[in-house]
User: Fold these one by one.
Assistant:
Number 1:
Amino acid sequence: MNTQCTQCSKTFSVSEQLQQAVDQFVMPVGKCCFECMQKQHLLFSGEWSLRKRTCDSSGKQIVSIYSEDAPFPVYDPAVWSSDEWDPLEYGREIDFARPFFEQYRELQSVVPRAALMNINAENSDYCHSSYGNKNCYLIFGGDLNENALYGQLSMRNRDIMDCDYTNDSELCYMSSDVSNCYGCWFAFNSQNCRDSYFINDCSGVSECILSVNLRNVSHYILNEPYTKAEYEKKKAEIFNGSYDNLQKYITEYKKLLSKRVVKYAHNVNAHDSTGDYITSSNRCINCFDVSDCDQLENIIFGTKAKDCFNSTLLGHGAERVFNSISTYQSTNIRCSSFVIDSYNVDYSEIVMNSHDIFGSIGLRKESFVILNKKYSEEEYKILVQRITEHMKKMGEWGDFFRVDLAPFAYNESAAQSYFPLSKEVAVQAGYAWNDEVVQSVSNAVVNELPDMLEDMNENHWSQPITCIDCSITFKIMSIERSMYEKMSMPVARKCPRCRFQ
Ligand SMILES: [Zn+2]
Ligand SMILES: [Zn+2]
């Protein structure tokens, strides 16, 4: 079936198989093409734009994913998760004379949000959209990590820095799309590798440098075999602690990549699947960055998810999710954002340990709630049926939240990472834009760092560093310093955000 996207006017096709799968959610398949749908979802995921602001409850200075002029109150995460406030106090009756989204927007403007969503975290204050991290810093959408610094969508790692889409790995640095790796730096699209550097599309290799497309070998440099002694000599030359030297090898690595054999897709153990970066999964159609998943279609990022369609950022144990973003250990979720340990949730945001929730925000341990107002189970079921019919009449049923209901501007949301747009194009397409994000450039004096790691003195370690790309200043955390020292790695001259790009 061919349909015209209501957002960009492009024609897109909906397969018979997807139509059947979506029928079980008792919703229409959607009016947007894959790209417009994903952008719409990703506008609900803020990242890399933490800023200082006031907590609207305590008045204290806090770090938040939301700017000071966000159209809703923002609370310190500790206050938000306490009993100091009750989300049901903002409850209201549904008005059948008006569109649902209009009433949802009014609820959005009064219910407080946590400055950062960082669930079950231990000593990891500056992480967002994350679950169960310990001693982590600036991790976005990463779960169950320990000692992980700067990165996104990385799961179950230890002692890693500047790694994205990295799972079950340890002591890795500046890597992306790797799994089950140990001691690898500048590793991309690789699995089950050890102590290797500047590698791409490698599997089961150990002690290899500047190599691509290798399987189950040791002591290779530039795809040529070396003796162990020769290998050690060359390795000492490359990693001598000098920043300039490292840049030389990064350039060499880039040259090597331009000559490598590129697979049409980076899929490993992907059965009956289409898309890219699919690992150990079955029947995943048009999916990107999914691992250990079964029966998904039109998904960006999923881990251990099942029976989910037209959705984004599916955490562990997401099952039967439709047209939603950021779900973790949850079942039967439709058109919602940030749902954790819950089931039967529709048109809601930030719902935890709850079930049978419709059109609500910021709930914990609740059930049978509509627009933050609690009902009996029987009343709830009758009312949800009526609202469904009402939304169908208003042409709202099955649509994800409109873009003007998103809590983030395009350029401060994850949409900008996946589908970068210029301000002009974004605004023309109807997305909000926040100029403040670009203005975060400071006037700090460029701080010259010594070439050799060993020449770094206490002053160098403690002073703010000016990013060589965007001029923003950043500081080296003590945990980060110990990572650099542990790995004899020269200190980065780019800020975490520029390193990510
Ligand atoms: Zn479109
Ligand atoms: Zn920068």
Number 2:
Amino acid sequence: MTDISGLRFIAIFPDIPIDGKFILRDLPGSGKRIDVLCRSLAACFDWSSSLEIRSKLEFMVSLSHSILLRFKAPTDATLRGETWWATIVRDSLRNTPPDFVTVEERGLEELLQILQKEESNIFVLEEEGRPLAAISKTPSASPYSFMLGNHRGFDEGTSKIIQKLDIQRVSLGQRSYLGSHCVAAVISHFERIKK
Ligand SMILES: C[S@@+](CC[C@H](N)C(=O)[O-])C[C@H]1O[C@@H](n2cnc3c(N)ncnc32)[C@H](O)[C@@H]1O
């Protein structure tokens, strides 16, 4: 694995109900595609193979441009899945987050401005960007952050913020992939790179 200090995903989901009122048996409908988020969380923390990279992973999700959930890897080794992750999101939104999640009232633009002051490797995942391989060849003390959209891509507000803050676009290829597969592909890219 390349010598990175951290690997972070920042997912943007403007439509998921922030009061945590969704039905676990109907995540796509009642949760406004929260299933897409839960699959990305599973891809981040459940699919990755090496413990070394798992300890460096962080997953943030911006909801309604106003709430920020930050996830680190859960420490237990139980089998998880989409519904398990949905209960974690629901509990976090209802003020009972587990110890690996923090909840903040923070907008996306403010978050990105804070990160830009401290870190240099902030990218947005988009089909039309530069190839991922071109930006990750050297060891870096700054964590790598990758923004990704929901099932529809990025909403207008997010696109404006990306443009305003001049965040570089990085691509996994011309074909559009599921968000969860993008997460898995980025993690395995960094796992594959040797110092
Ligand atoms: C399911 S895709 C969004 C829908 C897709 N843009 C479309 O209109 O068909 C979810 C997210 O995955 C990321 N993504 C998908 N394919 C990608 C690719 N080839 N390269 C980089 N990012 C990609 C983007 O961040 C995108 O917003």
